[in-house]
Amino acid sequence: MHPTSAHLRRRAAVVSGALLLVSIASLLIAGATGSVNIPLADLPGALHELFNGRADTLAATLLDLRASRALTAFTTGATLSLAGVMMQALLRNPLADPYVLGISSGSAVGALAALMFASAAWIVDASAFAGAVVISMMLYLLARRDMRSGGAAEGGTALLLLTGVILTAACSALITLMLSIAPESRLRTMVFWMIGDLSGSGLRWLPWIVLAGGMVFALRSARAMNVMALHAEAAVTLGIRVGALRKALFFCSGLLTASAVTSAGSIGFVGLIVPHACRFAFGPDHRVLVPAATLAGGAYLVLADTLARTVIAPQQLPVGVVTALIGAPVFLYQLHRLRK
Prior knowledge:
Blueprint: H1 3-32, H2 43-51, H3 58-91, H4 103-116, H5 121-148, H6 153-181, H7 184-195, H8 206-220, H9 222-230, H10 242-264, H11 270-282, H12 286-310, H13 319-339
C-alpha cells in the first residue's frame, strides 16, 4: 500500500474514533442532564436496566424519556452536516449550506400547510417530505441541462443557485401567507416548526436509514469529490464522470436535507459551520471530512438541544434558536479566517 494512502487511513481512523467517543459522551450528557439531573454514579445502572428492557428506577425512566430525543438530535445533526459537505462539494463553495437551494423552504410549505389544518403528525411529516421532493424536482427540471454538463461547472452552479434563490422566494411568500391567515391556536406550533424544534420528536428508523445510505455514497464518492473540488475543469479528463457525480450529489444532499427537516424542522447553521469547521481542523480531503463532519454534526446538535432544554428549565427553547445564536458568531469568525 502506498504510504500516503496508509497514513490517510490511519488519520481517518484516529479522527473518526475520537469524534465517535465525543458523540457517545454527548449522548450520555444529554441523557443525564435536564430539569432533574441523573447522578453520574446512577448512569451505569440506568443503562443496564434499559438494555434489559426495564425502567424500574427514576434514573432509568428519565434516561428512557431523553434517549429518543437525543438520538433524533444526533441523526438530524449528522444528516444536516453530511448534506452540507455534499452541497459544498456540489457548488464548490465552502460556505454553502443544505438550505441554500430552497429545499427546506419547500418542506416548510408542506409542513405548515398540514399544521394549519391540524393534521396528524404523520401527515405533517409526509407533507414536509413531499414539499422538499417537489422543490428538488423543480430545481432539477429547471437546471437539468447544466446538471448534466461536466465541463461548464461554474455556469451550472450559478444557474442552480439562482434557481434555488427564486424558488426560495416563492416558498417564503407562501409561508408568509399561511402564517398571516393561520388560526392563533396553531400559530405557535407553526413558528416553532419553522425555527426548528425537537421537543415532540420520537425515535424513528427511516432517518437513520437515509443517513446510512448517504454515508455509504459519500465515502464511495470521496475521491471523485476531491478531484472535482480541486480540478473541476480537468476532472473529466482525469476519468471523473462529473455530470453523473453532480446529479448524484444534488439528489443525495436533497434527500438528506428533506429527511432532517422532516424530523426536526428548519434548524439552521449546522450544515454550514460544522463542515467548514471540520475542514479547518482536519483538512479538505473528503475521505476524512465526510465521517468527521457527520459525527461532529450529530454531537453538536445533541449538545445544542441539551442546552436548549436546560438553560431556562423547566421551559424549553427551540433548538434552532440555540444553533443560530451559536452559529452566527462562529460563521462570522470562519468568514474572517477565510478572508485572511
